[in-house]
Design goal:
- The structure is a single chain.
- The chain is of the alpha+beta class and 744 residues long.
- It has 2 domains: 127 residues, Beta-Lactamase (2-Layer Sandwich); 497 residues, MetI-like (MetI-like fold, Orthogonal Bundle).
- It contains 30 helices and 11 strands.
- It has a 5-stranded antiparallel beta sheet with strand order 2-1-5-4-3, sandwiched between helices. Strands 6-7 form a two-stranded antiparallel sheet.
- The longest helix has 54 residues.
- It starts with 9 loop residues before the first helix and ends with a strand.
């Protein structure tokens, strides 16, 4: 007879599995919490015991300095503070007549009145009696922050004299900061462990869960915490709570600077995005000649220190400029102000828009344009109805990046603003000129308001529309959308800007061979030898730090973009805001915030190369994220879903599907991180040290000291290094033709 065994339903099996998982999760979590508490108890007790032992040893040594002659004791008491600073000391010889300890020569120790009163009030207490008894046996006795220290003779016998010492700070209070820090670290470690273990136990995709956790930890440690320190400063003045900084930001000068920043940012972003789109369209969607040359020249402004082009423009078009004064003899012409700033920032920042839009235009599947042309649409109609709308995510991203960068820039306005006021310069002057960290922080926070507003408007507009063009294998053929006349107009426009850029860089190169620009134009080669020899250490340090930061920032940016576009998780919007916010904050504020946050245990990073690498990654991560997000919005997620259906896990899909498809954005993000790491100025000025120096600061120092020849040499060397690394990146991460198109 066959016995029938009842089968469990899938629901019952699932419930049983969940019960096992919950039991395991809570059991392991409880064990870890208990272990963390045990670690805290052991370490805190050991630390407090060590502190007590150290104090007792110090006091024991101090008792050996008591003079043998009582006549010398008053002078000794007056100098005792050098041995035990921040302590009150009473000397008590034993009086045979009263059979008690009597304070010696009290009039020489007026600062101990309170301590003596405490002695007289409490000497009959049990703790005091025990302290005196311990002194008879030659032992130091402590209760709270009071010590009974017996004075022993050379043979180790009690001399019937003792010291009553009060430390200004209780040992427990002195160690409280360490104990509190230890507790905070263990709580943080416990939370991270529980969250990580919960992800491994319950998450469907552990890779996504761990990635989100890691990003939140990074954002918390290196963004939220330092910025909180900066925000805290806005409510502190002279060590006390104050609203002074916030009252100042509503003054007429601050509001004028805010309006100026908005004007400068809007004009620069609009003009830069327009020029960047023209360049990107010419390179990626037309058959214009010299595309590699155009790309190289368009990238030139971002591979040099931001003040190099400003100095070139001043030397060429300033009040005593070579062109405006020597050649054209212009009068009443000034490059200073809003117009000059828009010109300089546009030249410096349009490559950001170009690099962003180049990847976007390259990713557009040309079959949709072919379909438009096949339906009898003209090339102009196809451009305005197909190409331009599909480029809108990239255009808005480029505009936002340039707008943000313009608001945060202070190097160019510092040299060219004149009477035109912007928030970044006001914040910089408040911090570095008036040493008012609170006001500088408040002004810098004001920069975030328009940036975040533009960011959320851009996100809202893009998410309401679909821009998918890659749904499978893209077409590798590109139909020419421009007529010969339009192509010639674009060529003239592009090459005119290239000529202007070339003129600026020729000024820098010419400075290498001029003894002292503006004073002595004698030809010389001494600048090259002296510049390289004096700048060799800074060159090596800068390359090393930038090389470490570049791949980390590139991978983090693409993973973050994938999570933000493709995944849904708790705190997604918060994480996005945190990771994007550093790009909007002036670099001076970032540098100050990092000094405040990482100058004390447990993360003492100030003065190390690590804090500079972290600064590079965090500051430039938003560019890579923006590029990745814009590219992913054009890729149909069904491609990734097909890979999942075939058994691929998330890391495999990211490595073999997503990353190759967004390769232009990946290369752009890494390239931009490396360039900005090599040319950083604002935050680096606070983070450099004798061990880790930066080439841009040496260039700035040479320029400030009117050694323009040496500054030109290092600027030229910096440009050549970056160009070489660009070439190396192309070799290490080659373009395998995934998105390459042929114009026909």
């Amino acid at each position: 007879m066959v016995r029938e065994v009842p089968l469990l339903s899938p629901i019952c099996i699932t419930e049983n599995i969940l019960k096992v998982k919950y039991i395991r999760f809570f059991t392991v979590s409880a064990i870890f919490v208990a272990f963390a508490f045990w670690i805290f108890s052991v370490l805190s007790s050991a630390y407090m015991d060590e502190q007590l032992k150290e104090s007792e040893e110090t006091i024991t040594l101090f008792t050996q300095t008591v003079p043998a002659e009582l006549d010398d004791v008053p002078l000794w008491l007056e100098g005792a503070s050098r041995f035990l600073p921040n302590a009150q000391i009473l000397f008590f010889p034993y009086d045979d007549d009263s059979e008690d300890f009597i304070p010696f020569d009290y009039e020489h120790a007026d600062y101990c009145e309170e301590l003596l009163a405490f002695w007289n009030e409490s000497k009959s207490d049990e703790a005091f009696l025990q302290g005196i008894e311990s002194a008879y046996y030659g032992e130091i006795y402590r209760f709270e922050n009071y010590f009974f220290a017996p004075i022993m003779d050379e043979e180790g016998f009690f001399t019937e004299s003792l010291l009553f010492i009060k430390q200004s700070e209780d040992i427990s209070a002195a160690g409280g900061k360490f104990v509190g820090l230890l507790a905070a670290l263990l709580v943080l470690a416990t939370v991270i462990f529980i969250v990580a273990f919960g992800i491994s136990s319950f998450a469907r995709d552990a890779f996504v869960g761990y990635s989100v956790l890691i990003l939140f930890v990074i954002a918390g440690f290196f963004i939220a915490y330092p910025f909180f320190e900066a925000l805290r400063l806005t409510f502190v003045r002279d060590g006390e709570f104050s609203l002074y900084a916030w009252k100042q930001i509503f003054s007429r000068d601050a509001l004028r600077a805010l309006v100026g920043s908005l004007q400068l940012g809007a004009f620069t972003a609009t003009v830069s995005t327009f020029i960047g789109f023209i360049f990107a369209f010419a390179v990626e969607r037309t058959s214009i000649k010299g595309k590699k040359f155009i790309t190289a020249m368009a990238n030139m402004p971002i591979i040099s220190p931001p003040f190099s082009l400003t100095l070139s423009i001043i030397l060429l078009a300033g009040n005593n400029g070579l062109i405006t004064n020597q050649l054209l003899k212009l009068e009443n012409f000034s490059i200073y102000g809003l117009g000059g700033l828009v010109l300089v920032q546009t030249i410096c920042m349009f490559p950001i828009a170009f690099m962003t839009l180049q990847g976007i235009l390259r990713s557009i599947d040309s079959t949709v344009e072919d379909a438009s042309l096949d339906l009898s649409a003209t090339k102009l109609q196809t451009f305005f109805n197909v190409t331009l709308p599909l480029s809108m995510p990239g255009i808005l991203s480029a505009w936002l990046l340039v707008f943000t960068n313009s608001l945060a820039d202070f190097a160019n306005p510092l040299l060219l603003a004149g009477n035109f006021r912007v928030l970044s310069v006001e914040a910089y002057i408040a911090v570095t000129g008036r040493n008012d960290f609170g006001l500088g922080s408040a002004l810098s926070i004001m920069v975030l308001l328009p940036t975040l507003t533009a960011f959320f408007l851009q996100r809202y507009w893009v998410e309401k529309r679909s821009f998918v063009t890659i749904t499978g294998k893209p077409s590798l053929r590109l139909t020419e959308l421009t007529t010969p006349t339009v192509r010639r107009i674009i060529s003239v426009f592009v090459y005119a800007i290239i000529i202007f850029i070339s003129l600026l860089y020729l000024t820098i190169v010419a400075g290498c061979f001029v003894k002292n620009w503006g004073i002595d134009y004698t030809f010389t080669l001494e600048n090259i030898v002296e510049g390289i020899s004096r700048g060799m250490k800074s060159i090596v340090d800068t390359i090393t730090l930038a090389a470490i930061a570049t791949p980390i920032a590139g991978i983090l940016a693409m993973i973050t973009a994938l999570l933000l576009v493709r995944k849904t998780f708790i705190g997604k919007r918060v994480l996005e805001v945190l990771l994007m916010s550093p790009f909007a904050v002036p670099g001076t504020l970032v540098g100050i915030a990092y000094i405040l946050a990482f100058n004390e245990p447990p993360l003492v990073l100030v003065g190390t190369g690590a804090i500079m690498v972290i600064n590079y990654i965090i500051r430039e991560l938003p560019v890579g994220i923006e590029n990745g997000v814009a590219s992913l919005r054009q890729i149909d997620k069904s491609i990734e879903e097909a890979a999942y259906d075939l058994g691929a896990d998330s890391p495999t899909v990211f490595r073999t599907i997503v990353l190759p498809l967004i390769r232009p954005a990946f290369i752009t993000g890494m390239s931009y991180t490396f360039v900005r790491s090599m040319t950083a100025v604002s935050a680096v000025v606070f983070l450099i040290s004798a061990r880790w120096y930066h080439i841009t600061m040496q260039i700035y120092n040479f320029s400030e000291n009117l050694r323009f020849g040496l500054a030109s040499v290092l600027s030229t060397v910096l440009i050549l290094i970056i160009l070489a690394v660009f070439g190396l990146l192309r070799i290490l991460v080659p373009d395998r033709g995934n998105m390459q198109k042929t114009v026909s």
